[in-house]
Amino acid sequence: KSGEREVTFTFDKTGNRELPHILGQLPVLSKQYWESKGANGEQRDLKKTTLEKPLGSGAYRIKSFDAGRTIIYERLKDYWAANLPVMKGQNNFDEIRFTYFLDRTPGFEEFKSGRIDFWGENTSRAWAGQYGFDAVKNGLVKKVSVPLTNTVARMQGFVVNLRRPKFQDVRVRQALNLAFNFEELNKQVMFGLYQRVGSYFDNSELKSAGLPEGRELEILKEFETDLPKDLFSKEWKNPVNNSPDDVRMHLKEALGLLKEAGWTVNDEEVADPNCGAMCKMMRAVGLGSAKKARVLRNAEGKPLEIEFLVPNESFNSHIGHYIQNLALIGITGTIRQVDESQYSKRENVFDFDAVIGNYGQSLSPGNEQRDFWSSSAADIEGSRNLMGLKSPVVDKIVDKIVFAKDRAELVASTKALDRVLLWGNYLVPHWYKPTEWLAYWDKFSHPEKLPSQTSGFLNIWWYDDAKAKALEANMKK
Questions:
Q1: What is the DSSP string of 186-240?
Q2: Tens digits of per-residue pLDDT, 413-428?
């Protein structure tokens, strides 16, 4: 404390230009409140969960809640920052109610009935096939796709756990990507609505492309002896499967890499003497016989098996499609679905073979990259370094990002990081869409020009009384 309304922070290193901004985002909490006792007579503790309504300093406060079901926020009439220029046009709702559902289906039915006003959709199957109900046809419910024109595409993918020996060979990880048939999955499961993500910073100037050059090349040359030679002479790209021949070629390439990594392919009798769909698929691509399936085993005779840990069924069809492809090259995949709390615990202690990881990036990457990729974060429970990456090269490039002196240096360092991560094949990249899918009952309005990186719902939208009255009248007809 360096003044009545002032706190001074001193950093152990100079040049970390983003860190002061991060500290400036820290919320100010009431010391008096947290050092006093709660309504139950017990000492309040920031480290513990609580059902006591906390004291805050924002535009809203908790009005009421039913734990696990609903929570209602009410707008403060005397909000201290309401008239600041940066707050103009925001926080327009008097009351906001969030309703929680254990499963998507009953929640969506509540939306269709009108008991929920707004629905953000993230499932392609639903977006393509579940919005044909009368309220949409009659214009009472608006179904819109908001373009995101200035945002980094989120890297999402099947993240493998490098802490487990079977994933430590880069050839094994490369084979896993070769076995992923995105084009067929997009067609069969996602209605062709997605694009394959091919960078940790896709859809932005931070994405590595072509061959390294300029300042990016200079950065990578510093670590040339520790990087694959192909990184300097080839552009990393996801495999593309436009035909059965492409599928066959990529699966055979994957098998070759696995063989080099010490995995032996054997044709073994399948449990089902009729074999079924799997053997038909294998015969179609020339990788199996009528009643036998390929099985990969290492020198110790152990099969290559991957358990995909998930907290719900949202990705089961996607994973199931991938598991079928893995079986074509002898890898046994299974889905392990657990409840949210168990999933969080296992993910936090890195008790998994593979999970679906998300790496949201901004247009100005910085200190958060350490939590994503640094060696120090790999052994910290709950860190975002899910893959367990420990790379001195990555650590040093991340430092270059954190301590970049200008935009050009930041962009070059980020491109270098992107290229090194891609050539490490630490995950099997998924997909993205440069839009936000929204559905809502026609009782809201918003500025004509929306932000470039979000729809801004709740932040800058407002309840339109005239639209709401018209909606109510139309629903009575």
A1: HHHTSTT--EE--STTTTSTTS--SS--HHHHHHHHTTGGGS-THHHHS------
A2: 999 999 999 999 999 9
